[in-house]
Structures are given as C-alpha cells and as structure tokens.
Amino acid sequence: MSPPAPDRSGHLNFVIDAELCVACLACVRVCPTDAIAVAGDEPLLLQVVDEACIRCGQCLPACPHSAVKVNGEIGRALAIASQGDGVLILSPESVAHFYPATPEQLINACYEAGFRAVTRGVIGDELVAAEYLKLWEEEPWGTLIRSTDPVVVETVRVQFPELLPYLAPVTMPAVAEARYLRAQHGSELKIAYAGICPPVSSSDLDAAITFGDLDQLFRIRGVSVLTQPTFFHRVPEERRRHLSAAGGMPLALLEESRYSSRRFRKIRGLDALPAVARAVAVDRLDLGFVDILSTEGALDHPLSGPTDELYWRRELLASTEPPRSRQPIVDGAVVASVGATFAFKPRRLVPDPEAVGAILEQIGRGPNGRPWDCGACGFETCQRFAEAAALGRASMRQCTPYQERRADEAQRAAAVDTMTGLSTYRVLRDRLAFEIERGKRSYEGFAVLFLDLDRFKEVNDQYGHEAGNEILRAVAGEIRNAVRASDVAARYGGDEFVVILTRTDLQGGARVAEALRAGIEGVGRRLGYPSGLITVSIGLAEFDPRQPGEGDLLVSADRALYRAKAAGRNAVA
Ligand code: SF4
Ligand code: SF4
Questions:
Q1: Structural domain that includes position 282
Q2: 230-269 pLDDT per residue, tens
Q3: What's the CATH code of the domain at 420?
C-alpha cells in the first residue's frame, strides 16, 4: 500500500457574499464546526474559516438570502480542458443537475469542452467496493467505519481522533479512480473531478469543481449542452457497475444490512458520531461494519439541490443507470492503490479559559441564575459562543442578552446626571411634554420650579471646583428629599435645576419652593461655609389646563427666576 500523497488545501471553498449577507446568523446555527466567524463588527461581517470548514454544505440551504457560495477549482479545470489531454471524472449525480440534458448530451459536451476522456466515477466505486469486501473477509474486524464520505472523515480527524484506528483504510472513490487512471495512462495524466463531494483536500485530483462550475466552464469554452447529439459521438470510458452500489458500497455488504445483521450498522448524519466514539473507545464494543454517511448519499447532499426534490433526483438517476455488467469492469492488470491512512488533524484552536470566563462574565446569567443559552447568537450555548468569541470568531454584537443589558445601561446613563444623580435634561424635556399632554387630557395643572444657586461662580473661584461639586451634590440631595416619587427633579445644567411638581397648583408650588430655599440655605451651614454663602433663587410657573397654549413653561419659570434674583436673591418669585 503506497503512502498517500500530501494533502493540499481544500478543493471546494465556501464563502459568504458580503453584499447579500444580512448577518441573520442562520448559517452559524447549522455549522457543525463553528467555521463561520465574525470578520468585522460594524456592520457584522461573516466569513468562513477555511481550516475549520469540513465542506459539509449545511450552510448553503440554511441561508435565506443565497449569500453562501461554493467555488471549486475552475481555473485549474479550465486549464486541463484547454490543453486537451486531461481526463474528467464526472460523477453520476450530474444527470440531475443538467436535466433536461441527457447523459449522452452531457458527456458529448465534456468532450467538446476539451477533455480527452470522460469517465463516470463507476470505476472508483468498483475499486473501493472490492477493497471493502476484501477487508470484510479478513477477520477479525471488531469495528470498521466506512471512509468514503469526506465530511465524516474530516469530522473524525478533527473531533474524534479516538476513532481514527477504526476508519477503513480505503480512500474515496474519486481518488481511487484517479490513481487507477494514472496507473493506466501514466503518472503525468491530468485529472479533474466534477461532482458533489470531492475529498476535502487531496493531491490525487488536479482539480475538483462543482456542477455549477462545470456549467461555467461550458460557457467559457462556448459549449452548449442541450444542442449536443443525444447519442454518444465518442463512447465514454466504462460505465456499467458490477459489484458496487453508488458511493462505493459492495452490493454483498448491502445485502447483509437487509437482514439487520448485528455486524452491519447503517448511520446517516454526523449526530451519531459521539455515541459511536463512546461505544468504541470507552465501552470497547465491537460494532461491526459502520456504514456512516453525513447525508443519505450524494443525491441528498446540500449541493445536490433542494431536499424536497430528492426522490425526483433518485428516480432520474435510476432511470439512466445502465444494466449491470456480469463481468468485473476493472482491469485486473492495472495495479493501483486504493489504500488510505487518515492522519490526526489538530483540533480547532483551544481558547484561553480565562478569556472564555471573562466573556461568560460579560454575558451574565439569566433570571434563573443559569446561563442564558438562548441561541440568539447562533451558538447552542453561551459556553460555545464564549469559546468562539475568545478565538476572535464571534462578536459580542451577536449576544442579545448582553446587547440588551448594554442598551439598558446606556439608557439609564442617558437618564441620570452622573454628578448629582438627578434626572438629565433629556428626561426633563420628555417628562415636561408628557405632563403637558396628560394635563390637557385630565384637566389637571402642575407647577415648575427653576432653581439657580446664587453667586455660585464666586464660590467655585474661592473654594475650588471640588468644593463646588460637593455643594452641587448636597443641593441635589436636598431637592431629592423635598420632592415626591411622582415629581421630577432634574439638573438643567451647571448650577441650575428644574423641578416638576405633578398635580400641584401655584400655592402648593410656592410652599415647596420656600421649603427648598430654606433647606438649601441650611446646606451651606451644614458643610461649614459662612452663613448666607450658599443660597438659591427660585422661579415658579404653573401649567394651567384652562390656558394650555400660553407660552413655554420653562421660559415662564426662568423669567420668574430673574425676578427673584432682581429682588435680592435667596428668594422665590
Ligand atoms: S460547509 Fe459546513 S463546515 Fe463549512 S462553513 Fe458551511 S456549514 Fe460550516
Ligand atoms: S445565513 Fe449566514 S450568510 Fe446567509 S444572510 Fe444569514 S448570516 Fe449571512
């Protein structure tokens, strides 16, 4: 068994089109490897992290905006076609993609595009199936995990290294076929593959493209598929199966599965892998042959098309399948390895636990004292989100509870004057408008007090700004104590304050104003300043529901304030 050629980076690349993406996070929710990361914060930009992507394609149908794109190596495939001496392995699912073109028209189009030979991936399936049969007959195999699905293989390599020794040492059909073709035609042969699920990365294929890429290749080469003859003008390489089913499973093994043999387990989807890993590596159970695929098969792969057309695709493919060959179709004289070893691939980067803890702290906990785990960020749990964020692959902008708390805090910060703890001008303005509207409806008046500390600038100049701030805080405390919960006490700016006294007439307002004037006079004494240094002038105005449109209340209160100042200060007017 010859060692596998070194891998090169992925054949298919998943990318997110920033123009189409609305950052709804639907793709993040379905990605099994957290490979979709935040690339920018304002606005939220998403990208696929190539080394974490296992090319499962789940993000493709999940995106409601068709923003996820998949690109194969179309440039390389084009070069092979243009040189006219390469081979195209065209996987059988192509008949569904190119329908209503017939398989004959499609293959004729591939020739016309420049490929010297076109095969239909059957030889690869036959080679792989024969190898599985051989392995299965070699006892004892406690557990043997099917290794023809690149998504399964990548998931095992990255997430379940304990299963690596159980992966069947068999390569994927497209790779097996490429090796066979080179053994036949020489090691320099250039080989392109067009299909759904190429190996994630492998040097055995010179190019791998999607059917969408093949469409584009035809356009570039000026080839029209539908106008091709409906009969072969050049018969393609062998296309009849002998012992395999599509995907490289031997029919004989599939027969065994029909009898619910305990030596054969059929698993579809990656969700069962943790249980398989536990059974094999922890409980030391022999599971027999584990026939595992990430989907029902290539026809059910997200790249194949919508799930609700699966049965149509199956029927179409079955109707174009040529009759089985009675004889082996693989030339026994051609010696090509179908072996594979699957190396451990380092787990995704491990985040710093301290950074994860700090992010969890920022997120906080839900009302029940437990992590929110609300899923709004696209991750199942806060823990997984925090890990991705610690690696720089997620942004706090994705976390709704955190953003809501920040918004609350910002709103509170905007509502409260940080120096005095009274309401800000913004709250005053909104509440004044609200009280006027309410007064008009309920026919109730209210009073407004405008307060201005007397000669405060002199106090500041003489005793310093720190002393001035202390006085402002003490005056604010006095005002807070003098008003009811339903009233509004706000800092208007500098040493000016405004109080709205709800459901209070002019006389009531005057009483409160007088109490405030006296209280503030006492503030100076309490803080140890000379008597008469800290005083306030107060202007009073009333909202009269009988004359609701009569001028601006704050202006009226301000005018009254000037009258109080003119009357010698430390007064109410
Ligand atoms: S192809 Fe799969 S692994 Fe890659 S980004 Fe999409 S969902 Fe994630
Ligand atoms: S599913 Fe993903 S790629 Fe599509 S719009 Fe939402 S965030 Fe963007």
A1: 75-320
A2: 988 777 766 789 999 888 888 888 877 666 567 788 899 9
A3: 3.30.70.270
Q: Are residues 377 and 526 in the same domain?
A: no
> Is the pLDDT assigned to residue 298 strictly greater than 90?
no
Whether 513 is in the pocket of ligand 2, judged by its Cβ within 6 Å, is no
**Is the CB of residue 10 below 6 angstroms from any atom belonging to ligand 1?**
no
pLDDT at 555: 92
Instruction: Please report the pLDDT score of residue 7 as a whole number.
Output: 47
Residues 420 and 404 in one domain: no
Ligand 1 contacts CB of residue 53 (under 6 A):
yes
Q: Does 41 map to a domain?
A: no
Q: Is residue 314 part of a domain?
A: yes
CB 543 within 8 A of CB 430: no
Within-domain flag for 10:
no
| Sequence-ordered alpha helix ranges (H) in 371-453 | 382-390, 400-415, 425-442
Residue 1: pLDDT band by 50, 70, 90 thresholds? Answer: very low
Q: How many domains does the chain have?
A: 3
Cβ atoms 521, 530 nearer than 8 A: no
Q: Which ligand minimizes its atom distance to the CA of 38?
A: 2
Q: pTM of the prediction?
A: 0.70
The DSSP code sequence of 144-170 is EE----HHHHHHHHHH-GGGGGGB-SB
